[in-house]
Specification:
- It is a single chain.
- The chain is an alpha/beta fold.
- It has 2 domains: 129 residues, Rossmann fold, CATH 3.40.50; 121 residues, NAD(P)-binding Rossmann-like Domain (Rossmann fold).
- The chain has 11 helices and 12 strands.
- Strands 2-1-3-5-6-4 form a 6-stranded mixed beta sheet. A 6-stranded parallel beta sheet has the order 9-8-7-10-11-12, with helices on both faces.
- Helix 1 packs across helix 10, helix 5 crosses helix 6 and helix 5 packs across helix 10.
- It starts with 5 loop residues before the first strand and ends in a 5-residue tail after the last helix.
- The mean pLDDT is 96.
- It binds 2'-monophosphoadenosine-5'-diphosphate.
- 2'-monophosphoadenosine-5'-diphosphate binds next to helix 6.
Length: 280
């Protein structure tokens, strides 16, 4: 058996919700590559063993999803600056020497997903409002700051967490209180939901869009479901919306290239293949 079969995968706990196997295997087939991308159900207490085993198993690398992104930081041989700033790893690349490098493509993928829908938008186009201050918010904040964002209003239920991120990331981050959210979003160029509210199984995000400008691009990092009640409300009043699927697809491209050597394309067919998995 030749050892040119390329293996990659995604580690999470649970893992069955991840759409990454669908999209990477779609690309493996499309580009006629010899390989497979597999879901890896890894309990948190076994994460070190699982990651350290990647080179021995012949994996070129893997993605990491909940709840492993932060913990994996200490388990790789090196980290990119972006992963260090975010404080989380979503992608591991195993080098020819067996050394593992950790990176994080989530924030970049997010910025590209917005630009796919609105090509003229840039992080310095105007003020940005982010709802939530967890790991997902950190990833997109780092990418936006790296691309020149000047004002990011960070609105979080627990104000102290927003304050902490402002300390970590500097004066462009303006922490704001949750009670002020309806007014704080009124005039922003981009509004993003980075909380878990609106995810399948959770209540919808509790926010009034009455004061929001019709020009504001409204986005959600959630992709299960593909359109959250928050996005549906924004679309209903005429705002341009961007869902979390674009971030998933765009973060996957550089990872696929690092493992399989091809920069894959995001096509309507690929979107349809991923969307088909949401129909029960
Ligand atoms: P992730 O890594 O996906 O960002 P997280 O770190 O658990 O997940 O962050 C979840 C975010 O959703 C937090 O900003 C959280 O607010 P708190 O910092 O106050 O916990 C936010 N969140 C969770 N439940 C919420 C709710 N009912 N209303 C508003 N925000 C909520």
């Amino acid at each position: 058996m030749p050892n040119d079969f390329i293996l990659a995968g995604v580690m999470g706990w649970p893992i069955s919700q991840s759409r990454s196997p669908i999209l990477h295997n779609y690309w493996i087939n499309k580009y006629k590559l010899n390989g497979r991308y597999v879901p890896l159900a890894v309990r948190p207490e076994r994460l070190t063993d699982a990651i350290r085993g990647l080179p021995a198993l012949g994996f070129r690398g893997c993605n990491l999803t909940m709840p492993h992104k932060q913990m994996a930081m200490t388990m790789v041989d090196s980290l990119t600056d972006t992963a260090k700033r975010i404080g989380a790893v979503n992608c591991i690349v195993v080098g020819d020497d067996g050394k593992m490098s950790g990176t994080n493509n989530d924030g970049n993928g997010y910025v590209l997903s917005v630009q796919e829908v609105v090509p003229s938008w840039k992080p310095d186009t105007g003020p940005i409002a982010i709802l939530g201050a967890g790991g997902a918010a950190r990833a997109i904040i780092v990418a936006m700051l790296e691309r020149g964002a000047k004002e990011i209003r960070l609105i979080n239920r627990t104000y102290e967490k927003a304050e902490q991120l402002a300390k970590d990331f500097g004066a462009a981050i303006k922490p704001m209180r949750w009670e002020k959210r309806a007014g704080a979003i009124a005039d922003v160029a981009l509004l993003t939901n980075a909380t878990n509210q609106g995810m399948t199984g959770k209540p919808p995000l509790d926010i009034s869009l009455d004061k929001l400008s019709k020009q504001t691009i409204v986005s959600d990092l959630i992709y299960v479901p593909p359109e959250t009640p928050f996005l549906a409300a924004a679309r209903g009043r005429g705002n341009v919306t961007v869902n979390g699927l674009g971030m998933l697809l765009h973060q996957a491209r550089p990872a696929f290239q690092a493992w399989f050597g091809v920069m894959p394309e995001i096509t309507p067919d690929l979107r349809a293949a991923v969307m088909a998995t949401f129909k029960s």
